[in-house]
């Protein structure tokens, strides 16, 4: 059983050009691999930030085939690492309503897991800034965990962070590392991003790995950056600022048991549903 893993988070300002985004992400991933990262996580919508909000999506793939899936699989294989692909739009059973899907590829290029974003961002952030993700996306319904090298991971995406019951499910399924690739807005990120990430880590005694989009996108949307890794005690192990780049952190998985032994919050629950 592996007791530590070197993860890398990719922070980028994705545009509305898929090829440009993949080229940019590839450079960052190669640099992270050269620094010894074994497990790399891309942010939500890394391959495409749509120009238009609430309209038909411009690049949607079919499960199992498509440019972005091929790119993720071959890169994972070439660099012999795990690659978590934030989200991409993947056809669902309903026309023009793809899932926002996170694919996880492993070292031989095969698929290890996939997760469909459950909570969709239908909110008004402030005057002139509102989102209607459900108008062009179908919500997933299943929490997803997977095991890699004896470590258990739980999947989530962005707005999911506001729904603690998803993470409580992961706690009851012994998740060691919570993944939360995001495109958190600048306006909400300033107030809520770090707070939510730390809360999810502390209340569930798990690491939280959260790469975010950053900067101003083609569609004029602004995202917050500040990709970070939090340990199960709530401490920020590594944090980026607003520039594009990579964050590399070593997760010492033994730390979870060390904390649970002295501070067994997970055994003190009373109101089980
Ligand atoms: O639409 C895309 O291209 C990429 N997807 C997103 O940006 C998604 C849905 S609009 N954003 C969020 O979930 C932000 C959540 C958030 O910021 C909060 O909870 O405060």
UniProtKB/TrEMBL annotation:
PROSITE patterns in UniProt: CN_HYDROLASE
Keyword Transferase: yes
Taxonomic superkingdom: Bacteria
Gene3D superfamilies: Carbon-nitrogen hydrolase (3.60.110.10)
GO molecular function, one term: acyltransferase activity
Keywords in alphabetical order: Acyltransferase, Hydrolase, Lipoprotein, Transferase
Domain CN hydrolase: from-to ranges: 5-253
A Pfam family: CN_hydrolase
SUPFAM superfamilies (UniProt xref): Carbon-nitrogen hydrolase
Protein known as: Nitrilase/cyanide hydratase and apolipoprotein N-acyltransferase
